[in-house]
Amino acid sequence: MSGAAARNRERGPFGRLAWGAYAAAMDLPERPMRWAQARLRDGRLGWLFVGPNLIVFGLFTFLPILIDVVFALTGGTALLPSQRPFVGTQNLAQLLACKNYLHPSSCYDDQFWYGVWNTAWFVLFQVGLMIVFSLATALVLNRKIIGRGFFRAVFFYPVLLSPVVVALIWKWMLQRFGVLNAALQGVGAHPVDWLLNAHWAFGWTVFVSIWAHMGFYTLILLAGLQAIPRDIYEAAAMDATPPGRVFWRLTLPLLMPNLLVVLVLALIRAVQIFDEVFVLTGGGPGSATTYLVEFIYNTGFAQQVRQYGLASAASLLLAAVLLVLTLTQLGLTRWSAKRG
Amino acid sequence: MAERGGVFAMLTATRGRGRFDWTDWATYLYLAFGVFLMFGPVLWLGVSSLKSRAGLDIYPPRFLPYERAQVHIPGVDRTLPLYRVTAGPLAGRELAQVRRIGLMAQMVDPAHGGTVIHVPFRDSRPVLRLHAAWSNYSALLTKLDFPLYLWNTVFITVVATVITLLFNSMAAFALSKYRFSGRGAVFLLILATLMIPPTIVLVPNYLIASQLGLTNSLWGVIWPGVATPTGVFLLRQYMLTLPDELIEAARMDNASEWRIYWRVVLPLSAPALAVLAIFSVMWRWNEFLWPMVVLNRSSKFTLQLALNSFQGELATQWNYLLAMTVLTLLPITVIFLFLQRYITQGIASAGVK
Amino acid sequence: MIRPNLAVLGLAVPGLAVLGLAALTFAATFAPAVAAHAAELRVMCYSDGNECAVYADLAKGFEKQHPDVQVRIDTVPYAQITTSLPVQLAAGHGPDIARVTDFGATGKYLLDLRPLLPDAAYWTREFGPVLDWMRQGPKDTGIYGLPTQLTITGPFVDKTLFEQANVPLPGPKATWDDWAAAVAKVAKATQTPFGMAWDRSGHRFAGPAISYGARYFAADGTPAVVDPGFEAMASRFVKWNQDGTVEKDIWAATGTGYRDAFASFANGQIVLYLSGSWQLTRMDKQVGNSFDWVAVPNPCGPAACTGMPGGAALVGLKGTKHPKSVAAFLDYLAQQPVYQAMMERTSNIPASASLQKASLHYGLSAAGNAALQVFLQSVQSLSPIAYHLQGYKYNQVIFNTTANRLAQAIAGQITLPQAYARIASDLRQQLAAAKQ
Description:
Chain A is built from 14 helices and no strands. Chain A has helices spanning about 5-25, 30-40, 45-70, 90-95, 110-140, 150-160, 165-175, 180-185, 200-225, 230-240, 245-270, 275-280, 290-300, 310-340. Chain B is an alpha+beta fold. Mean pLDDT of chain B is about 80; it is low at about 1-10 and about 10-15. Chains A and B meet through helix 2, helix 3, helix 5, helix 6 and helix 7 of A and helix 1, helix 2, helix 5, helix 6 and helix 7 of B.
């Protein structure tokens, strides 16, 4: 390491301190690792490096899936699997028992189906509108505008805020005596109980989650737009192609891989909506904004009789949906890679 | 082309030079509206957090933190709210209200003191003055254990980020620079965890955490999330681009594999590590559902949990709640101000959040 | 895309972080070791007013007598007690002592203090009937906890608004219908947004329902919630919510869980607030004399004029490593002078027989004392059904489903008959799951 001294000088006092701390800490495993290296055949050493990660994955991701299955097949209220009686598919049957799947109130477990349908509607509106708005914003930000960095930052800022903070900000504005109702009264309209009306409350959960996440998707789409080579447009301009045609025939197809990534990412996240809504509406009014994860949380954690079996069965159903979505994403990535 | 330039430019980012046409107006209008919509609520939160409890009760709300003016009257042991009389013989005078009985208010003139004047309550309006209630913030420090929650959150964020960087980079190093039996399987396994979000393993994870004695411990929040598939994937892709010759050269120098990892590969992966570090800080600072399940002692609460529990408990004290919300979003905001470009570029290139 | 100068950052961040980590681990490892005592009792506590602070203060006296024991009071929101504590207990990681109201969910984790108490007879003499609520069945004679208070539900009224509207307060035999009409009139006259609000809780709802003839249990003793009496009150309550007499927000705005309406009352948004005696300290502190507030006797119905009794208790938990210290601490609090101080300082109705007869010196205002007297008198008019329901092991299942299903009906999501059917099926399903 001949350049070490020179590099050290470049780092300055702050950097030297940081590097010193880093080196001191990272030198600690040197001896055991050297010992292992001497004894393991070359290939085995890789396992040592992936080991810590795999152990954590095993403990907190793969093992829990197995336990989920055990829970889903057992009943009672005990937490330890050994104390839970086997009930077979009873939990699943209970969730799926329904006279008419379109009417949650006709189902044995109506809360679950409210959750399913609410989530379905939420996904439809939230993902649809979010893609439209992030695309529009990305197109606008892609123009030659003054202060693009500033505007991009403004649209992105809410992404960094925690769901609790986001929900509180909007709860504060949507109160009966909040600023929104004051504005309404200012223009002579009647105040509205925004979070008390089922349709408004649903609409606000959609809006707030778009508000909080739009910036992220905008960034991805903007990156995609900027990757489109300029000369393609210049060629189109030479041919005097109508702008609408350019958008539909050039921009959109070229942006398609990014749009698909955004679509699937947004779908995966929307299906799991919980935090913001939990703080904003608590699932109300009634169960108008009770989404699937909140159903799982309520069933497993918030009732006197804790039905882990039901909660786990619902989790597995949700996992199945997510599996399909993720596989779709992988498929799409391959497809667009081949095409590109 | 000239007359089409506007729409064309809107969709292709090649605006006609030198002209400020209607598409530009539309663009800036859109942006201005965006700024209002995206930043307005946060600004409103910030301004509101400086209002006293009485100031928050003013409806319709004022933008700036106004509150009711109070005066000291000699001989009265508390301050009295000041009212301006709007009708009757005393119209226009500012009086201090001693008490209100039903529809009548008992007032005294601060200039003269002493004698009580009866004024119909509806004929008086409270006098407002500008006042930033910094006490909302100072009360957080003394009353609400804010420093404790801040410490818990910082501890989780820092420790979890360090472990995440270490574990993920080790795994990424092995997956990108070693050929070992089972490598493909390991990589697929790690990718598969992308499909298992924490929400669906909530109950089993609680069981495991409790069996490991991690409940009500900050470590219980830290461990389950340190092995991120995103991080491994991001770092592996980056490390694949590092030339193998560097590693071979280090091996020639008789460096151990561990040394190669931390002295050669890690420093070269710094840009990707920085992106992951920023992600990890964001994830940990904002984490909510899992901490809520695993931490039940208020002495272990993170900022997010404290905020959530206060919004139930302090329903009557929005002033503290708002101040605490501001303090919770402040660190992230400051980080964003300084690292804005890195964050947005990192996210755009990695495509993850 | 990423600038090379980011490399400096990439180095500095992990470097500093490692340094920070070392310091943190050091601090985390050694800080508790210094403070460790022989026995540390963890008390999971929630406050209605100032309870936890008072317990912490009283614990100092105990620690003086037992220098080897340290009592740590963890104050948590009430929601944590109902949602997290049972999970913790199931996992075997609960505290040593907890202040709970739901004895059904914690039942099997409670520690029997009887063999550990020096004078168990004193406990049964003083706290007899309330100790029964914590037991598993008629054969169980265990002593599981110290009742921290007896509570009774009842309405608070904003008298100032009545005076402004020039409407007389309904008399002691007035029905809920009378009160609903009166508060609606007052609200209209004084431009108050709503007539009344009830805490979002099936427990609060049970009082008026029993007054209107609800029996909650079938003749054979099995729970049967929906009957004509229950329907009579449920239909009224839903109607009042929909016509604006009752503040809809409280019940309808959240999907599940408890929510109180104290803020609405304190801010002058409602005329009548159905809550209970545990709110006295808060009333005194937060409402004070900003308006005249009074507690009134529980309004009547055809069957009774009842509220619901209730109570919280500090219970010992089986998982503790120091059962003797747990018993010693609770026994210390149960002794008359300490218990009296606890009641007086928290402004609660004592659960002990001898103190109920004694006159206590509460630190309450005149208004607070007057309200307390009203609650004490309300104890006389409690219906036996109310006592029975409060002692029922799975009463929380009844209360939760009542609140959640009626809230759905209020929000217009389901009809009342559907809500009734759901209450019955929820009860069936959850009791079956609990017994599996």
